[in-house]
Structure to design on (218 residues):
């Protein structure tokens, strides 16, 4: 946000973690700076042509969408006011990095429970369930995702070797009704996300056949 009084307030992107047990908000991870780019790969789910070539236009489910973005985390400004930012003074940006990293770790309690089940001879070890993650990039784009991978480059460190600046690359897989099932609390958000795409597509003016040199086609 600039210093001009009439400049718009810029929204931040981030992740909202929802408890799988009761649907409460467990944590909100706000990206410190809005990423400059957001890369998306959208792949159709269609009938395998090798098994059935007679229906090449049939879709078997929602497209598979992956989002990739780079975020910067920087504690330099906060270190100028150490008494107001004691967590940063003591640990640098470790808390912010850990909040992201623990999204793809089972909790220590879950690991201990799995170990106890194995030691007791259980035939079925309960898989660890992570919180539901919602990726928020403006009001139009709030969608359930799974954090598939993180790439972290720590760049500067304080005298205790705590990282104080880092670049983080996040790879997010959009979770559709195929992944969650219609009964899951995240499915409603995915359907709203898809319906928003459909509404925006309806606003597209489109072109004409003549512009494409295909005026006599129809």
């Amino acid at each position: 946000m600039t210093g001009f009084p009439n400049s718009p307030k810029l929204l931040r992107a981030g992740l909202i973690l929802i408890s799988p047990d009761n649907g409460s908000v467990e944590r909100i991870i706000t990206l410190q700076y809005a990423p400059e780019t957001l890369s998306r790969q959208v792949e159709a789910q269609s009938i395998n042509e090798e098994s059935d070539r007679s229906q090449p236009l049939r879709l078997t489910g929602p497209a598979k969408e992956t989002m990739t973005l780079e975020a910067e985390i920087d504690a330099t400004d906060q270190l100028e006011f150490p008494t107001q930012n004691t967590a940063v003074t003591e640990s640098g940006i470790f808390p912010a990095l850990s909040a992201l990293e623990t999204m793809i770790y089972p909790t220590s309690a879950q690991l201990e429970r799995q170990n106890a089940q194995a030691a007791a001879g259980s035939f079925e070890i309960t898989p660890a369930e992570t919180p539901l993650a919602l990726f928020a990039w403006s009001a139009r784009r709030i969608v359930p995702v799974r954090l598939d991978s993180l790439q972290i480059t720590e760049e500067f460190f304080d005298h205790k070797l705590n990282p104080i600046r880092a670049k983080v690359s996040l790879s997010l897989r959009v979770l559709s009704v195929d992944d969650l099932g219609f009964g899951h609390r995240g499915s409603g958000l995915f359907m709203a996300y898809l319906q928003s795409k459909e509404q925006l597509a309806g606003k597209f003016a489109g072109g004409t056949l003549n512009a494409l040199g295909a005026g006599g086609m129809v």
